[in-house]
Structure formats: C-alpha cells, structure tokens
Design a protein that fits this description.
The protein is α/β, with parallel strands linked by helices. It is about 50% helix and about 10% strand. Among the domains are: about 55-145 and about 210-295, Rossmann fold, CATH 3.40.50; about 395-455, no CATH class. The protein has helices at about 10-15, 20-30, 55-65, 85-95, 120-125, 130-145, 150-165, 180-185, 195-205, 205-225, 245-255, 275, 280-290, 315-325, 330, 335-345, 350-365, 375-390, 400-405, 415-425, 445, 450-455; strands spanning about 70-75, 100, 105-110, 115-120, 230-235, 265-270, 290-295, 430-435, 435-440. A five-stranded parallel sheet has the order 4-5-6-1-7, sandwiched between helices. It has a two-stranded antiparallel sheet with strand order 2-3. The protein has a two-stranded antiparallel ribbon with strand order 8-9. It is globular.
Length: about 450
C-alpha cells in the first residue's frame, strides 16, 4: 500500500471535514492529494452513474481468482479523473480477506494479497527518454521502502554483487544501504553528459538482473510470509504524456521497451497515458504484456448530442457532493447551489480542475478580506484560468476542436499527433454513458476567444 506517512485530505484539513474556514478550504482543495482509502473514507463519493468504474469490479476478482497465474492490467485516463484514489482503494480491497459464495452453495475464501504501490512520478521528470529500467528501479526502491525485510535482503545482495559491481568503474562512492544506493544512481540516469549516457547504457544492459532480482525477492517474501498473491501497482506513469513537444516520441519509445514487465512474478497494474490508449502503440504494449486496458473517463457533466441535458445531472450532483464533503458550503459559500453548479460545469468533470478553481477563488476572497466565497469569486477564478489558456496557442487547434464539439468523436481531419496533444493537454475530455465513449471540448477551452469564435 502507499506509505501511511503521506498526508490524507482529512488530516490536511486540520479542523475536521467539512471545513468551516477559508484557510481550511485551501488545504482540502489541494489537487495534489489523492484520497486515502481509510483515512478519507468519508470523502469518497459514488460516481458510477456518471463515470463508469468497471476497472474496480473486474480487476479485483480476477486477480484473486488467478492466484499465482500472473495477470497484467493497464489503467488509462486523464489526470484528475480519480485514478490514484481508485488504485489506492483497489489496493486496500486486495489486502483484505474475501469470502464468496459459489453457485453450488460452497463458501470460498480468497486470502489477502500483498500490494506494492509504486509512484513513478520521479522517473517521468527527467528530460531524457524513459526506459523500462527506470520503472524496474522504481519497483526496487518501493520494495526497499515497504520494509519487506526478506525481500529487501535479497535485493541488497543482488545489488552489491551484480549492479554495483557492474557500475563500479563508472559510478563511485556508493552508499551502504539499498535505498541510498538507488538514490545515488538516480542523477546519473537523468543527465545527458557522455559519462551519464555511459551509465544509462550499462543500466539498460542490467535489465534482466533487475527482473531476476525482483522475482527472487518476491519468491523469498512469499515463502517467508506465507503470502500467495503479490500485486505491483505502478501509478503516475501516464504523466510521461506531459513532456511537451517530445512527449509523443517518449511514449512511443517506452511502449517498445515495456515488455520485460511481463517477466515479473507478480500481478501488475500499470497506468499509461490516455493518448497512448488511443494510438497505434497501444497494441505494442498490450501484446507485450498480454494486458487488458481500462480507461477511467471524466465525471459526465455534459450530455451526448441528441440526449436531454438532464443526462448530465448525475455528474453535476456527484461533483456537488464531492465539494460538500470537503467544505461546509452553507458556511463558506454565499450562494451554494449556483456556485456548486458553476464550478462543476467549468471543471468538465475533472476533479483536479474543480479543486484548482476553488483554490483560486479562495485566494481572491482572502485578498478582499472576506470570510466566505461569492459567485463572483468563482467566476473570476474561471476567467483567470481561461486567460491562461489563451496564451497556449489554441488557435492552431480551433478547427479540430470545433469538429470535436460538433461530432463528439475524433474528427477525421485530426492526425495522430494532434489527437495526442489534445488529449494530453486536457483540451479534449473523454466522457462515457450507456452508449459508450464520447468526447467533449473542455468547458474552459470552449470559453477562449480562438475556440469560441470557431464554435459560432
């Protein structure tokens, strides 16, 4: 599971939830904090009517029933759709003993699994391309941090004998502990100097060592702790799509190197960029891993063309509940119904964008010495975000965005590179209903001059 030392939203509030002060509102509207499955249980909302959550209902029973027949799963979706919170909940469920009744009346016990939660954020930050060895090292680091003593001892021995010795001529002054040694190596994997590139090439040659080391560590851990199922969840890897102009190439290169994850003796749940999920490289990844893909769409706040506007009511209601569980809106909002609707619609169903708007509105209320938010604070925060979008050159996408708005599909005039950019930058959002997937232009993007003009 994710480290319990990470601050939960409820703990960040400092005053209990829902918060009753503007300072508390700023803390619970931090978009970087995912929900903890235990400490934030009271903040979770049911979004199944407006955002399908099929991944939770499929992955958990299949992992349990598969036992040591290792499975692979891909999770995709925009940032801000709740993937990390869902994955944390999924991990908690897998770590719980489950009993199920079979059709013939027998009761079957599925033992708990041990879940290793890997945050891949550090490996997506460098300017260079991302290699599968970066992910393997992230798993090593997470395993060391998880305090699985038996597994850690195996990794430490493998590191000393095979990794450190192989790199000793290139990298000096190795720390004695595994975690510190991996951290010592990290800067060498991010640079572009000749000496750093030499280290990166040698690390890539050690790919099989990293895989074998993990498998030996998992085997030792399972034997020592009498645990059958080990699940590795690799989160935040989808952020490689945020790497600007180079992102498409980086995603493609990674897709062609991901295959060794299939050789890990554990169930693997891996996040990937939504743009990869709709590119030709998806087949490369899914075939290499024999993995099934699930996409997490946004909360639906806009109806499909031809359906009544009320089709979005469930989503708007869910987002209002999302805010109400964090914030005492009757105390802090001047006009709760109008303000909740305004921020929900503007967010496009993206939880992080909703939180960013509220956080921005809070700073404006504090600046004018108020003790509550007004609708004008919300509107000014939305306007400020639209003004920021105005600087991003949206006019080059205006015709395609107009076609998306009109058709709610990927337009035929849209090439792969443009579609990648539109999804990666959240200019286009994915929604889903009982008829399947459809696309909408982000409401904030629709308000920019370049796009608004093309929509007329």
């Amino acid at each position: 599971m994710p480290s319990s030392s990470m601050l939960s939203v409820t703990e960040a509030a400092r005053e209990g939830v829902p918060v009753k002060s503007l300072d508390g509102l700023a803390r619970v509207c931090d978009p970087s904090l995912p929900l903890d499955p235990d400490r934030d249980a009271a903040l979770r909302i049911d979004v199944t009517k407006s955002r399908p959550s099929e991944h939770l209902g499929v992955i958990v029973p299949n992992v349990r029933r598969a036992g040591s027949t290792w499975t692979r799963w891909l999770i995709s979706g925009h940032e801000g759709t709740g993937k990390t919170s869902d994955l944390r909940l999924l991990a908690r469920v897998l770590e719980t003993v489950q009993h199920e009744d079979t059709r013939d009346g027998k009761r079957v016990k599925f033992p708990q699994a041990e879940v290793l939660f890997v945050d891949a954020s550090p490996v997506v930050a460098p300017t260079r391309a991302i290699d599968v060895t970066d992910v393997l090292l992230s798993i090593w680091a997470a395993l060391d941090d998880a305090h699985w003593a038996a597994a850690r001892d195996v990794l430490h021995e493998t590191w000393k004998k095979q990794v450190e010795s192989s790199l000793s001529k290139l990298v000096k002054n190795w720390p004695s502990t595994l975690g510190a040694a991996i951290a010592h190596l990290a800067p060498w994997l991010r640079g572009m100097e000749a000496s750093e590139l030499a280290v990166q090439q040698q690390v890539q040659r050690l790919e099989h060592v990293f895989v074998k080391g993990l498998n030996k560590a998992f085997e030792t851990f399972r034997g020592t702790n009498k645990i059958g199922n080990v699940v590795v969840i690799i989160d935040n890897l989808e952020k490689i799509a945020n790497r600007g102009a180079e992102a498409r190439n980086i995603v493609s290169l990674f897709a062609n190197r991901v295959g060794s994850l299939k050789s890990i003796d554990a169930h693997i749940i891996l996040t990937i960029p939504i743009a990869l999920a709709y590119s030709s490289d998806l087949r490369t990844v899914s075939n290499a891993l024999n993995a099934e893909l699930f996409t997490v769409p946004h909360v639906r706040v806009r109806a499909r063309h031809g359906r009544p506007d009320t089709d979005a009511d469930d989503g708007l209601s869910a987002l209002a509940s999302f805010v109400r569980r964090r914030v005492d809106v009757d105390t802090l909002f001047e006009d709760p119904p109008a303000m909740l609707r305004a921020v929900a619609v503007a967010s496009g169903g993206n939880f992080r964008d909703l939180l960013r708007i509220l956080h921005s509105a809070q700073t404006r209320a504090v600046a004018r010495g108020a003790d509550k938010l007004t609708l004008n604070d919300i509107e000014r925060a939305i306007t400020r975000t639209v003004q920021q979008l105005e600087t991003q050159g949206l006019e080059r996408y205006s015709d395609v965005l107009a076609a998306v708005d009109r058709e709610q599909l990927r337009p035929k005039i849209c090439d792969d590179g443009t579609w990648f950019d539109l999804l990666a930058k959240l200019y286009v959002l994915e929604h889903a209903d009982d008829q399947g997937t459809f696309y909408v232009v982000h409401p904030l993007v629709r308000q920019t001059r370049a796009v608004a003009g093309a929509l007329r």
